[in-house]
User: Fold this.
Amino acid sequence: MNVMTYIIKTDALCKQYKETTALNHVSLHIPKGSIYGLIGNNGAGKTTLMRILSELQTQTSGTVLKPKNLKIGTIIESPALYPTLSARGNLEYQLKITGYSGKERKKRSARLLSLVHLKDSRKLVMNYSLGMKQRLALAMALVEMPDFLILDEPLNGLDPEGIKDIRNVILELNHKFDVTILISSHILGELQKVATDYGFLKNGKLIREFSSSDIADEDLETFYFKNILS
Assistant:
């Protein structure tokens, strides 16, 4: 009998903002090695949940269960990039404040840029397309090669080529480097191309968790509306 190993779980997680309940007893289970698609309408609590898992915010009550030394990388809301620096400059600065030596910074930044397939590494970020900025943000989130990567709407505003590029990077990180990924997206057709597991959030409550095998031949959008509106 196979025992499921989870990289991170939550138990009855709640977040209250004065009169608003952003999360209502959410018990989430993210399998190690998975790409977990978090789905819900605007205001469902997705970003709040991701911020708590990233330790950028604290919950009102409930528990986050994870390994003590779990390394987490995040892209939540607008990525923090320095527009007057190049991609390489952004990465080397991040590596510097993380404690890497000059020689190691150059070597590691080159490796990260290659990993996210970002060319024009000397061009200033202010002149980048949205897709290039998203790839750089991914590289920044990978500076310490996390075990667990959290991506909040990474496909937002991208053209078809940009979406394909980010999708390929996500799959490569998961398959080649064994990074577990939590990703939210409103583009359900794209999410279905990468995700192995899913959770539906509605009004701060986790409605359902399931794996890609549970969908069978049904498309994710149809499955979502059938479950979220039932």
